[in-house]
Amino acid sequence: MTSLNCPSALLPEGWFHNVHLEIDYDGTIISVESAAAEFGAEQAAGPVVPGMPNLHSHSFQRALAGRTERAGSGSDDFWTWREVMYKFVDRVDPDALRAVTAWLYADMLKAGYTSVGEFHYLHHGPEGESYDDPAEMSHQIVAAAKAAGIGLTHLPVLYAYGGFGEEPPNPSQRRFVCDPDLLMRIVDSIAQSTADDTQFAIGIAPHSLRAVSDDMLDAAISTFSKSHAEAPIHIHVAEQLSEVEDCVLHTGLRPVAWALDNLEISERWCLIHATHLAGSEISRLANSGAVVGVCPTTEANLGDGVFPARSFLDAGGSFGIGSDSHITIDPAEELRLLEYAQRLLYRHRYMLTTDTQPSVGAALYTGALKGGTQALARPIGEIAVGKRADLVVLDEANIMLTEFEGDAILDAWVFASHANFVKDVMVGGQWVVQDGRHQDEEAITDAAREALSRTLT
Fold this sequence. Notes:
Structural class: alpha/beta
Number of helices: 14
Helix content: 25-40%
Radius of gyration: 21 Å
CATH architecture of the largest domain: Alpha-Beta Barrel
CATH class of the largest domain: Alpha Beta
Distance between the termini: 48 Å
Largest sheet: 5 strands, antiparallel
Strand content: 15-25%
């Protein structure tokens, strides 16, 4: 049992002072009392907020961060970046995947992310051969999450084609190819191995409309739902304009419109990016109950475009954030860029507030908490009884927090965090970051450095 006093904490009803938490041995919050600091309890060293869910990750891509910023002879965009990524991925073996992923997840924790959705499509060996255990690479993701101490919703990816019209995959995609039968073998293996661990959940991720057929999509969702009726389903959609144009060419509809017409899009769905929406797609998607997973720093890095956040939120839509390719690992920066992009488009300030929440930082942070929690389908995202004790303690010694209270703390973190505001992080009742340092920082970093040296040379 853990007993924790918080000088202030963000509860579902708002900010409260002198909050006392009781956390059971399983890492679940069993008591929350305000104005009730208890003698002898552990003292949090600053304001306490729920940890942020990171709803979209391709962990191996962290190794490429900063290595794809040199211009070529022609125009560069997502598709040229993807070719660089494909060349790298051939060198990633199970040990390297585990080491790089653990390093990434430790950095996520230090930044204030306490759970992650891993959109995992690196299934096979370098020549496309199956490992003896078809879930080998997925098990490495789980092992990395355990090593780092982060909560995980694992999302094995269905991936069959190189483009619309059932275009055969190209050789660079051979490690990703996965049909519904293989997908369920991976799902069953991971679900069985993590069944008794409250830090883990399972979902599936059809890669995109261009990478699966209609029949394959129906078969995978139907089979998965028989044993996991409420588990999450994530999909990339409408990230690039060329994808939208190809979808219209082959189906007569834009990607989101096609999904809404042909799939039972509901609260269990998370549509990643959804950057290019038009007309009624915005209101229909908002009304579906699905979450949009926006990844502002990756979308900006790749030149994808700007998600119509203002219109989507006005229509009642839900969103969460992901670090995707991990060019940046910082929830404050994702939220800041989400807001700033709207300011630049509309040439106004305070774009993503609500009628009930005038604080931009608080509106962004709590909105991403809610959407991320829904998308990862785990009991997280709130400091409340029955929720996981996934807590972020902000550094009250940081001069940028001087004389800030309540929602102004989140304004400062999101918009003025020139240095990391995160001091301590608890996941499932266990401290995994203290004084800004991960509990196994040296070992995790050394293993990642060796893996990077081996795969990048």
